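The methods section describes the discrete structure representation at length, but only in general terms. Each protein is reduced to its one-letter sequence and a matching series of backbone shape codes. I believe one specimen quoted in the main text would settle the matter. An entry of this sort, consisting of the sequence and the corresponding backbone structure tokens, reads as follows.
***
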Amino acid sequence: MNDDPFVSCPYNIAHRVPRSRIQAHIVKCEKKENLNICPYNATHRLPEAEMKHHVMNCPSKSAIFPEDIKRKTTAFLHTPKPILQKDYLPETDPHHEIWDD
């Protein structure tokens, strides 16, 4: 998240409020403007034309749906081929007993 302790009001950008008080400020500052509320963060208020793009790229979405985050690393797991005793124990060994057969 942003390290800025202050955020701008979605109704009036000139209003700068502490991040911890933005929800209370929005309730006080709410006007007759028709702004839609983001489904991932109620402090995100946008016009309808911008909402679809915002919902697809909302930074709060990853907190709710962490499985949607694209992973950058991938790995392939496989079982190693077992080494049989007869493959590494020479037949000339006096203790040559093969239990793998």
About this structure: DSSP finds four helices and four strands in the chain.
